[in-house]
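It would be a great kindness if you could assist me with a short task in structural biology. The matter concerns a single protein, recorded as an amino acid sequence and a row of backbone structure tokens. The record follows directly beneath this note:
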Amino acid sequence: MEDREIVELFFSRSEVALRETERKYGRYCRAIAGRILGSDSEAEECVNDALMGAWSSIPPHRPEDLAGFIGKITRQLAIKRWRRKNAAKRGGETALALEELSECVSSGDGPEESAEAGELREALDRFIATLPEREKRVFLCRYWYLDPIADIARRFGYGESKVKSMLARTRGKLRSFLIEEGVIDEQ
């Protein structure tokens, strides 16, 4: 079934929309949640929550990219669940990736930060669009999919040190870009 047909099912409040979304994107979403949470059962729960989140969001939203929409909901829910679960103990690949990115992006949850989140997302999208294809793919593997450095190195045929330095340079470019765009202050 095409995505636009699935979205129409959501708009008509047909539960078939949930089944079709799970059939088409369930594996993709379980992979996202599983990478973050490290547990198949927690990933499954997260995907179920993401489907309910999509049910609550469509309508009024009409996503043009259903895979991206459901993937984003899954990722946000998985990170929130991971943070709750690991509030006392920090560790693992997710913590490392989020810590690396925090060099460039604040992670505040207050009202001011929430208001600025939309501006930050738009700037991040513009920044990613400026990257050369391979650098963009490495950056997304690390900070969207939260892949371990070793996996990224293997996938692209690089050494781990090359991936680390590439990511460090990209984070530096991101920080400069965000300062230039006025999204963050130079400190």
Notes: Residues 98 and 143 are 7 Å apart (CA to CA). The two ends are 50 Å apart (CA to CA).
